[in-house]
Design brief:
heterodimer, A: alpha/beta, 6-stranded mixed beta sheet, 4-stranded antiparallel beta sheet, 10 helices, 30% strand, disordered C terminus, B: 130 residues, mainly alpha, 3-stranded antiparallel beta sheet
Chain lengths: 307, 130
């Protein structure tokens, strides 16, 4: 199994709203893929299509080799799914919930379930109803990890939770990586949270996947550039298309280079701005990159592919 | 507890930050040749990073001769790692290069840079243990 998740021109419309549009991606086995995007970008719809909780308008998705539309219990037993708005039987205690889930999964690992419950600091005998939202999320994650799924799908797991709970969730999630086969597909609008976790990141905006690539490649090719100029020359009519959000003022040019390569960028700057005196390039966080891209998408026509 | 410390800064690949933290621990003597090095899993859990990244850190440091993997036993700080001043200096080559590049961009002379380094050195030496 080399590919854990695949989508092929996946599309879902709600009336006239194109919630997910022509989305094609491939998530290899053995890593963390983070789907990042603003609220309403189509993250949850994508995940629901993947989990067969929604039907696509067109296109298709495949989970562990099985088309989402034909997900069978045998495949679902190898997939964990926790969503922000997880519905749980609130009258049950954590212990009862685990006992309820256990017979559904032949691979249920009782020792792991116990370890997770202790690690998550979950009270075993209090009904979920009286527990905080964070505690309920941990209970839901426990029940999705204890059978050691090969794929774990998390829809906005961190939204609105305090840092301690987030750390618990991440630690629990990382337990999965002890296995031979594991893949995590996580959607989030909290870019900082996923930066140290993700191998690959996909940016989705208005239902379209705008880019998907390894985090290291993305951090490598983006730089915030500042050029000190000798005079107040106006900006040339055309700048390299990889330069995003250019701003000029009082002998200073600032832009985000999305194809940074030190000698090449320096050469371009010297060619366009012969009076440039000093160039500084600063690495950008995933969040800063995301913000720069989102601004660029907003300021250009939807049809124009900038990257 | 991990034998090296780091606080993540966003924008720099996690891999590079961990590699740097380990090198710093070796240079400062906090990690000594022959010391056991944490497993990929322990690093992943403690730093809350992707184990693939932790794996790459070990591969990088092994490739650079700082760690040695003894199959079936574990990973250790390589014997002879950072034993000579030249090797210790080599650990800093990336940082020195960065410093030189930045200094040149600011049109500083090599004397300016060495003076700045010397100033900083003197200031830190006033606080032994750093």
């Amino acid at each position: 199994m080399d590919t854990a998740i695949e989508t092929d021109r996946l599309t879902r419309h709600f009336g006239k709203v194109e919630a997910v549009n022509d989305l094609t991606l491939s998530v290899p086995d053995g890593g963390v893929f983070a789907l990042i995007g603003p609220n309403g970008a189509g993250k949850t719809t994508t995940i629901k299509l993947l989990m067969n909780l929604l039907q696509p308008t067109s296109g298709r998705s495949v989970l562990l080799g099985t088309p989402s539309r034909r997900l069978d219990p045998a495949t679902l037993r190898r997939v964990g799914y926790v969503s922000e708005n997880q519905e749980l039987p609130l009258w049950m205690t954590v212990r009862q919930l685990a006992a309820f889930c256990q017979p559904l999964y032949p691979t249920w690992d009782r020792a792991l379930a116990d370890e997770l419950r202790r690690g998550f600091d979950l009270p075993p005998d209090r009904p979920l109803r009286v527990l905080s939202r964070g505690m309920r999320m941990k209970a839901a994650l426990l029940c999705s990890l204890a059978y050691r799924p090969r794929v774990l799908v998390l829809d906005e797991p961190f939204a609105g939770l305090d840092p301690l709970i987030r750390e618990d969730l991440v630690e629990g999630m990382l337990r999965l990586t002890e296995q031979e086969h594991w893949t995590v597909f996580i959607s989030s609008n909290d870019v900082d949270e996923v930066e140290p976790l993700a191998d690959q990141v996909g940016f989705i905006n208005n239902g379209r996947l705008r880019l998907a690539e390894p985090v290291s490649a993305l951090l490598g090719r983006f730089r915030q550039i500042e050029v000190t100029l000798d005079s107040d020359d106006p900006l040339p009519a055309s700048l390299p298309p990889a330069w995003l959000l250019p701003e000029a003022g009082s002998r200073l040019l600032r832009f985000v280079d999305s194809a940074w390569n030190e000698p090449e960028t320096d050469r371009q700057i010297r060619r366009l701005f012969p009076t440039s005196r000093q160039v500084s390039s600063t690495p950008m966080s995933l969040k800063a990159i995301f913000v720069a891209l989102a601004r660029t998408w907003r300021s250009t026509a939807v049809s124009k592919e900038v990257l | 507890m991990l034998p090296f410390s780091l606080t993540f800064r966003s924008g720099i690949p996690v891999h590079d930050q961990v590699v740097y933290a380990v090198k710093k621990a070796v240079v400062s003597g906090r990690l000594r040749p022959g010391d056991p090095f944490p497993s990929v899993r322990a690093m992943s859990q403690h730093l809350r990073i992707n184990p693939n990244t932790a794996q790459k850190v070990v591969a990088t440091l092994t490739g650079q001769g700082l760690l040695e993997v003894r199959p079936g036993i574990g990973t250790f700080v390589a014997r002879g790692s950072a034993s000579s001043a030249a090797q210790r200096r080599a650990l800093l080559s990336d940082e020195v290069e960065r410093l030189v590049v930045e200094a040149k961009k600011l049109s500083l002379e090599v004397e300016d840079l060495t003076e700045a380094v010397r100033d900083h050195w003197t200031r830190l030496s006033a606080f032994p243990g750093r």
